[in-house]
Amino acid sequence: MVQVVAALIRDGEKFMIFQRPASKTRAYQWEFVGGKVENGETLEEALIRECREEIGVTVKVGDVFMEVDHEYPDINIHLTLFNAEIADGTPQKLEHNDIKSITPDEIPQYNFCPADDEILKKIKEEF
Fold it and tell me: Which residue pairs, CB below 8 angstroms and at least 24 apart, start in 103-112?
C-alpha cells in the first residue's frame, strides 16, 4: 500500500481543488493537492514538499481531516488528508490542468478521483 498525503485548503466558505493533467492516470479528474510520501519523510514533510512542487506554495499543516484506503486498478493507497493553510505564495498550475475554489454544494459539478468520495461526503456534512 502506498502512503499518500493531501491538503484540504480552505478559502473562506470554499475549499481548493485541483484538476489532474492529461499526462497522468485519472486524467482531468479533480483531487486535493498532494502526493506520495518518500522514504524518510514524515507525512507533514511530504505534504509541504508536494505543495511546493505542485502549486508553488508553502503550507502550514494542521490536523488530520480524514484518512481513506482506496484500491485503484493500478495502485492501492492510504490517503491522509490534512487541514492546511497557505503560509506563503499564490497557487500556480505547475503540475495541474486547473485550480478552483468551490463550495460543498458545487461538488457534484466536478468529476473527482474515486479515493476522494468518502472525503467529499464528510466535507458536505461538516463544512
Answer: 103/13, 103/14, 103/127, 104/15, 110/17, 110/30, 111/28, 111/29, 111/30, 112/17, 112/29, 112/30, 112/31
